[in-house]
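Following up on my earlier thread - several people asked me to post the actual chain instead of describing it. Fair enough. Here it is, all 73 residues.
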Amino acid sequence: MRTVDALKPVFLEPRDDYWEIHDADNVSVEHQREYELVPFETARQLKNAFFCEDCFPHRAAAEDAERENLPSA
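Reply from S.P.:
Thanks for posting it. Predicted structure:
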């Protein structure tokens, strides 16, 4: 990943037990005050963060496919 992409700002929306990652360009000013602003690479490394389907459709689809391939307990 290029350094420029890794440093691109994204917002983390707090959910009950995870974070949802939003593209900074798609977050309203009202929500910007409520969410945490972090570099993309930082958000991507969080174990309990998932990509917003509207902001990152390809990444969200890849996460869904990955979860479906996990062995069930």
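The chain has a mean pLDDT of 90. That should answer part of your original question.
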